[in-house]
Amino acid sequence: MRNSNYLVKEINDLKRPREIDYAIKIQNSNSKIIFEYNSDLTFNAASLIKIVIVDYLLNNKINKSSFFNKVLPITSQDIVGGAGVLRGLSIDKLKVRDLIYLMLSISDNTATNVLLKQLQLQNLSEWSKNKFKNIRIERFMMNNSVENNIINLKEFMNVWTEILNSNDELGSIVRDALSHSLTRSKLPALISKSGFIGEIYTKTGELTHEEHDVSRFEYDDEFIDCAVLTHFNYESQRIDCIRFIQEIGLIISEIF
After folding, report:
1. Dihedral-angle region of residue 142 (phi above 0 means left; psi in -120 to 50 means alpha; beta otherwise)
2. What share of the chain is helix, strand, coil (3-state, %, to 5)?
3. Across the strands, what pairs with 203?
4. How far apart are CA 78 and CA 251, in angstroms?
5. Which residues contact 188 (CB under 8 A, 6 or more apart)?
6. Is the confidence at residue 82, as pLDDT, over 70?
7. What pTM, to 2 d.p., does this model score?
8. Between the CA atoms of 208, 114, 123 and 147, what dihedral angle is there, to the nearest 10 degrees?
9. Domains (ranges, CATH) in the chain?
């Protein structure tokens, strides 16, 4: 692996999108921070909040096989739009492990809401307030609540690392889902240019004014964790944010 100074220099030399807010945090397999910018800044979480939902399961030790194999009903009231496939399928029940897999691999909003209903949103809200300074779980997916789900990278990257490093059954489900993530159009998008042949675990998120991505690039027992959050005011700025995230991912893939 190349010296991390290469990564820092290349990212510092990147052209930044104009008039946007962004945060970056990159750390290695020893949890050493390689690059950090605006990690205290709070953003609307978009679908990255789904990683925090998994952290609730991990921290509250709701990670036994009996729970993962529990079958939950999917009612017409649970069906929502946005990302996912459950809204178009004639399925009226699924195991918890399958809902977790769908929530992470294709960011299925209906699967997420079924889990939130089972766990009780209020429980997750209170837990997030007690555990974090600037991470909140406050609403169901596709719900126009006054309260929003929020994150910052200083806390979120600790959550990400803890989950991916977990050696229990939940960690296995999560790694399998994230390694088969349907959306790989941001941090992992340009890896063919570098010839990176390792494993990538990735989760993306987007809203009307946000483009986010978090990924682990792993090769030969070494890995780099990277997350980028962006907020913009105009739709015309979205593509600039995506390209910015893609370039960061390319730089990371080149250091292996």
Report:
1. left
2. 45, 20, 35
3. 214
4. 41
5. 200, 202, 215, 217, 249, 253
6. yes
7. 0.95
8. 20
9. 4-254 (3.40.710.10)
